Amino acid sequence: MPDSLQKDYTVIEDIIRSRARSSLPIMDSMITSLVRNGGKRIRPMILMAVFRGMSGKDSVLDTAYRSAATLELIHTATLIHDDLIDKSHTRRGVPTIFAQHGIPSAVLAGDYLFVEAYALAAGLPEKIVNTCVRSLRKMAEGQLLEEIIPPNELSFKTYLDIISSKTAVLFKSACESGALLAEAPDDVVRDLGQAGLSLGIAFQFIDDLLDVLGNEHITGKPIGTDFWAGKLSLPYFLYRETFGPLPNDRSQKTFQSILKKLTSDDIIVKGKEMALSNTNKAKELFNVLDNGEIRTYLQNMCDQMLNRIL
Ligand code: IPE
Ligand code: IPE
Ligand code: MG
Ligand code: MG
Ligand code: MG
After folding, report:
1. How far apart, in Å, do the first and last CA atoms of the chain sit?
2. CB 43 less than 6 A from any atom of ligand 1
3. Which of 40, 173, 183, 263 could crosslink 135 through cysteines, CB 3.0-4.6 Å?
């Protein structure tokens, strides 16, 4: 990571940690442990990289830090609710708030972190608040669609709309915010937003593949969660295309019985190619960044995202 971004990372980490606090000990312990237990901080670093890559002014740096920390708090709040929705028991290598404290605590801890995100967003320039608001609307809509559409009625196109909404719009928002804060021209803001969207789609493709072939020690999440939750994500679309219908029964035993096919080269190579075509789009669009060192950092981030499933 370039030195300037390393410094930004430390500042943003401090803001995130100081905001994820509560005077109520149980709330404090739930949210501080999630925030301190790792997390790749991808979204805030993308925002800062785009801001720096477009030669954003030092006078705007504090606003960029607040914007970046806001995105991470939003992301973390959505993870708490997502684990409750998906009935996931492990996140970042430790029990989820849902698993450890139950449904009411997970709802309220997520709400609490959203409030902290809004508090941090208050006072940010209107254009930044607007992109955050647009993302949050889309994220809630995407998560809802994923829940209510029965898997046998889900088309690949709708799946793409869902992952764009639930995941990629926040990457888009990170890129747009960085570009807006650096006062980039409208067409550049638009192109960088598109880079974020493509990167976000690739990110969810890989996350979906890791749900069948990941290593819990590396991802911090167990495999098979999407299967038990009845989801139809990328590897299952590819499975159907390659091997025919999926079993209706979503038990542990059935998952184990199809795992070999799910992790076969047919599926992984194809899934990775689909992710690659999106990271390639993002890399191409990132060429607009003025600063070569930062441009390389972001383009390498695109490659590393794919290498999570080499
Ligand atoms: C997980 O996001 C949720 C998805 C959109 C797939 P990350 O993989 O960025 O989670 P952390 O913050 O690093 O734990
Ligand atoms: C989550 O997608 C997207 C969010 C907006 C939180 P997943 O449900 O696949 O994320 P993980 O795998 O639990 O991190
Ligand atoms: Mg989940
Ligand atoms: Mg989910
Ligand atoms: Mg997942």
Report:
1. 22
2. no
3. 173
